[in-house]
Structure formats: structure tokens, C-alpha cells
Amino acid sequence: LSGLDPAQPYFQDTPIEVRLDQSDAEFVDVIHTDTAPTIPYLGFGMSTAIGHLDFYPNGGREMPGCGKNPISQIVDLDGIWEGTRDFVACNHLRSYKYYSDSIIYPDGFLGFACASYDTFKTESCFPCPNGGCPNMGHYADKFKGKVGNGITKLYLNTAENKNFPLWRYKISVTISGSSTVTGYANIALYGNNGNTKQHQIFEGSLKPGSTYTNLVDAELNVGAITKVKFLWNNSWINPTFPKIGAAKVTVQFGETG
Question: What are the C-alpha distances in Å from 72 to residues 26, 66, 86?
Fold first, then answer.
């Protein structure tokens, strides 16, 4: 049984007889997308973990793409009716959009077990443990035999619009060069399934010999990595024309470690 942002008003913190609960089926998975308090934020969804697996994409409160201005949201790609509904309850309605997207991405929407969304943003919950990570949505039941009666909160990030799934990588770059420069370093991943756009690994002082690490939610599972592209920029003209490179790039895939 899959709960798509189960209702908060009149249902949160009520007896299990009147709301969704893990006792309602052999396996209950839940997607939470609108868990802000009803007042003053008008959150329609329940924040409490109530299933065998509870997924909190983007932290469960504010979904990417829901902060668009009213005009651009109402004149939506899916049509004016869809756009108008999204303007009124965008975060709440993201739950069914994630679910429908999950049907065509069996390896997407990987949820990482974490104590909180803030912890998920660090490396503490990365990569997936030996038993793997469950997939939010249609394929969550692949994890059915691995859950007990306890509560498991899972976190992940999604894109702003279709296609919603993102794949998490940890990328480390060791800088080479003759002098320290200020700027930013980007990495693009290439693999047998395609390539990603450039993702920023670090911004600030880039020191030769130092290693910079960041978690990246890529728009593609690139498969077996064949190449990485390294780019740095300081956003202004430096008359000394400094040159830096990547002496080493290490990529770790969240699903397999």
C-alpha cells in the first residue's frame, strides 16, 4: 500500500484506526512532500513517519519547482488546468508526479536512510549500506523483505520538473598547479549511458595539492564511467593567466559504493 502525501489536517496524531498506518497492509510505503505546518504554511501532508518505509524527498517540505511565480506555474507545460492545481497545492501534488515518474525509472529515486534531511546533506548516510537502498515509489516493494516493524526515514533529492529522478555521487578532486587561485571547480561525468551536465564541486580558494569533495545529485545514471571533464573558472580576468588542473578525480556511486 503506497501513501501519496497522506493528509495532515484532521489526521496527523490521530488513532491508527482513522489514518494510514503500517498495520493497514503487509507493506506500507509513504511519500511525504508537503509536511510544513498547516498554519501558517498551508502544508497538506503528514510529517509523521507512519509506514514501513517513509520517504522525504527534498526534506519533505518544499519541492523544487514549486516556488515559480504564479503566471509561469499556471501556464504549465501540462496545461492551464494542471498548472492552476499546481499553484494551489504544488508540493502536495508532487507525490503522485514522483510516483508516476518512478514507474519508468526502476533504478531511480534511491532513498538513503538518515536521521534527518540535514544529515543527508553530509556524507554520513552515503553510500547505501550492504543491503542496498530502497527506491521511492512504484518499486519500493522490492525492499519488502528487508523491513521490520520499526520506522525507517529515507531522504533523497529530485529535479525541479520532469524527469524528476536524480542519482547521487560523491566526487573528490585533487588540484594541481603552481599557485593558489580563487574560483570554482566543476566536474561532468561521462559513461556508457551518457554524460551529465557540469556540477560544481567547490567554490573558494583552490590550492594545489588540496582535495575538494562534494555530493552531487546528477540528472543521469551514467553507468560505467569512461571519462570525467574538469573545468575551473575565476569569473574575472587575471593578468597572470594562472593554470590549474585536476591531478586526480575520484567518483563514488551512491547505490553501489
Answer: 42, 11, 11
Quick check: helix, strand or coil at residue 9? Answer: coil
Share of the chain residues as helix, strand and coil, in percent rounded to the nearest 5: 20, 35, 50
- Rounded Cα gap, residues 218 and 170, in angstroms: 10
Say how many C-beta atoms besides its own lie within 10 A of residue 104's C-beta: 10
Local structure of residue 134 (DSSP, 8 states): P
Q: ω before 127 within 30° of 0 (cis)?
A: yes
Q: Which of 150, 133, 141, 159 is nearest to 52 (CA)?
A: 150
Distance in angstroms (rounded) separating the CA atoms of residues 184 and 229: 14
Residue 16's Cβ-count burial label (10 Å; 0-12, 13-18, 19+) is: exposed
Domains of the chain: 1-165 (3.40.50.1820), 167-253 (2.60.60.20)
Per-residue pLDDT tens listing for the chain (257 residues): 999 999 888 788 888 888 999 999 999 999 999 988 756 656 788 899 999 999 999 999 999 988 765 555 555 555 555 555 555 688 999 999 999 999 999 999 999 999 999 999 999 999 999 999 999 999 999 999 898 888 899 999 999 988 999 999 999 999 999 899 999 999 999 999 999 999 999 999 999 999 999 999 999 999 999 999 999 988 777 777 888 999 999 999 999 99
Residues 6/96, Cβ–Cβ less than 8 Å: no
Cross-strand pairs, 54: 30, 153
Region for 5 from its dihedrals, namely left if φ exceeds 0, alpha if ψ lies in -120 to 50, beta otherwise:
left
d(CA 230, CA 189): 9
